[in-house]
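G., the chain you wanted modeled:
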Amino acid sequence: MRGSVKTMLALAAAMTVQLAGAQEPAQPATQQLSPVERQIVAEIHAHAPQALELLRQSVLINSGTMNQAGVRAVGKLFRDQFDELGFKTRWIALPPEMQRAGHLLAELPANRDSRGKRLMLLGHLDTVFEPGNTTPAWEPQTEADGSVRRIKGQGVSDMKGGDVVIVEALRALKRVGALEGRRIAVMLTGDEEEAGNPKTVSRGDAVELAKRSDVALSFEGSITNKDGMAAATVGRRSTAFFELEVKGRQAHSMGVFGPGGYGAVYEAARILDAFRQQVVEPGLTFNPGVILGGTEVAFDDEHSRGTAFGKTNVIANTVTVKGDLRYLDYPQRDRAQARMREIVAQSLPGASASINFRDSYPPMAVTPGNLKVLEQYSRASQDAGLGPIGAVPPESRGAGDIQFVAPFIDSLDGLGASGGGAHSPNESLEVASIERSAIRAALLIYRLTRQD
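Predicted structure as tokens:
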């Protein structure tokens, strides 16, 4: 059942408040865990150094999205881990013309005794750091006492740290005999940072896997909400685009506002300011990222750059605007697009305009099912003595792979390691967060795979 955006956001906010009030457990956390769960936690603690070494190995391999060989090499590193855990692995190649490396799929072999919820775990192998980037690949930050609490480097938190969390959570489950007979699949995509087109192809295998799963867990970096509370993602806004083309009557500038009309630039300004003032809803944003105007305009879509020519004594005849549009769900998209079209149609004298829309990433709506998974994740965290987990407002996160599968199954994102500065030379990861996130994830996976 899918409620309205307003209702679901209210539920998420209420859950955050409720969980924050439960921050202090009534008794020691270990008493909340079963004997097997305590073993799982102990295994993760015991093998924390190996987890950090796996992260180091993966980060030292450049895997910028366009570095296909590098993406495949990181995929091989993680494929070896899943092979050791008894997963059946395969590399999903994409058509050569898409210029993307492909994806890694690992699945536990199913049999007649397999049971529990069918889980889909999501991560990605690529980073935004292409070969030649000057950001250091691996830079431990040593404290005064000699300890290393943070690592700076290429993709440490977005999201090779999350990939390591997946492996370590599953490894702990394997060591205590908790993977046998469970239905778990892992997909690590090779082009999350710049998904190949058409997305029906680059995300087709993920969608098909979702259709035969019950719950999707994605391991993008965990974050802290505005209240300082650890938080996971129950919703993400779509990524979409708008293109505004405006035409005016070219004439001498002395005629502007009169016989010459208002021209393309004034018309574009009217439209954009009307969008700002009249297309207003919580969670809805639209950003005119590029605008070119004059009497001659050219824009190169492939390289996102353009040129414009004009003179101050000539009324401009052309304006091109390229923009970003983000919405919480399809009804909100439809309302926004309808109102934007109405505004565009109300042209100033001597001008006309047209607007086109193009969807990219679908929205991950906040649903009761997503909130239920969050509740179980928070309970696992509290039982382990790690505190509750709140909900991240959907407008606070960008696009991610989970959006392609969330329309089909209950989904939760943000289960990875904690860091900061993603996509920048200051990208970093808190070392201890690998262990925390692996414990939380392992307990959630353990509990979900024992539910029908």
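Residues 17-28 have pLDDT under 50 and may be disordered.

Shout if anything looks off.
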